[in-house]
Design brief:
The protein is globular, with a radius of gyration of 16 Å. The protein has one domain (34-230). The chain is mainly beta. Helix content is 11%, strand content 31%. The strands form 6 sheets. A 5-stranded antiparallel β-sheet has the order 1-2-15-14-13. It has a 3-stranded antiparallel β-sheet with strand order 3-4-5, with no helix packed on it. It has a two-stranded antiparallel ribbon with strand order 6-9. The N and C termini lie far apart (37 Å).
């Protein structure tokens, strides 16, 4: 019997609802390989991996400029995030110190994603459908996270269940931000380019304690990580 599992997280008056409807698909992963690197407008270089018919950036985006060279506003006052209706980014901080800027990348609100100028030319922020294509190829919601997560407990909290990183995607627990920073080490959250409603957009997240990839929707003002997928 299939079960739908919903996780409800509430903080600072912001509701995140993530629902997971596990579907296990039996499929051999036969076309996964690191194929190249790409460079963003600032000169940051990223590894890429081919998974099935898709090519993904294998690191979190860390650009502070759109692909037309325009600067993305940086917001360092966390309380200001609660009033944002415009693009912004930040880097995860603990006691005012930036944590693993290059490794973890930046956290962007969805207003930044919706400009369609965040990824390098020829690439885009994955839609909800792009994420579903990836997860289905990897065997479904309940196992795909393990195949995407970085192995070990250097970055992920123990036990980092099911992590093999056999895809080379190297998903990291970069946490999130609103009025403060949340869940670094425990969860990684990634935006999709798909709007859910006027206040929220679709996302995916992974956890330290299981091998799932969960699908949810979150208030657009929250700061999440971003990956890019190559245009077809």
């Amino acid at each position: 019997m299939k079960r739908t599992i919903c996780l409800i997280l509430a903080f600072a008056g912001i509701l995140i609802i993530a629902c997971n409807n596990p579907k296990k698909v039996s499929k051999e992963i036969s076309t996964i390989q690191e194929i190249s690197t790409i460079q963003d407008i600032e000169g940051n270089v990223y590894k890429t991996v081919k998974i099935g018919k898709q090519v993904w950036i294998a690191e979190n985006l860390r650009t502070t400029k759109y692909n037309d060279g325009t600067a993305i506003p940086m917001v360092t006052d966390n309380t200001a995030w609660l009033d944002l209706t415009t693009p912004a980014y930040c880097f995860y901080r603990i006691n005012s110190e930036i944590v693993n800027k290059i490794k973890y990348g930046a956290l962007y609100n969805w207003f930044t994603v919706s400009t369609n100028k965040l990824c390098p030319a020829g690439w885009h922020v994955p839609t909800d459908t792009d994420w579903t294509t990836l997860i289905t190829y990897l065997g479904g919601d309940s196992v795909a996270g393990g195949k995407l997560k970085e192995v070990g407990t250097t970055d992920w909290d123990s036990p980092n269940a099911g992590a093999t990183n056999e895809t080379g995607f190297t998903a990291l627990p970069s946490g999130s931000c609103t009025d403060r920073f949340y869940n670094s080490g425990m969860f990684g959250y990634w935006w999709s380019a798909t709007e859910f409603d006027a206040k929220a957009a679709r996302d995916r997240y992974m956890s330290f304690n299981d091998s799932d990839v969960d699908r949810g929707y979150t208030n657009k003002l929250v700061g999440f990580s971003v990956r890019c997928v190559k245009d077809k």
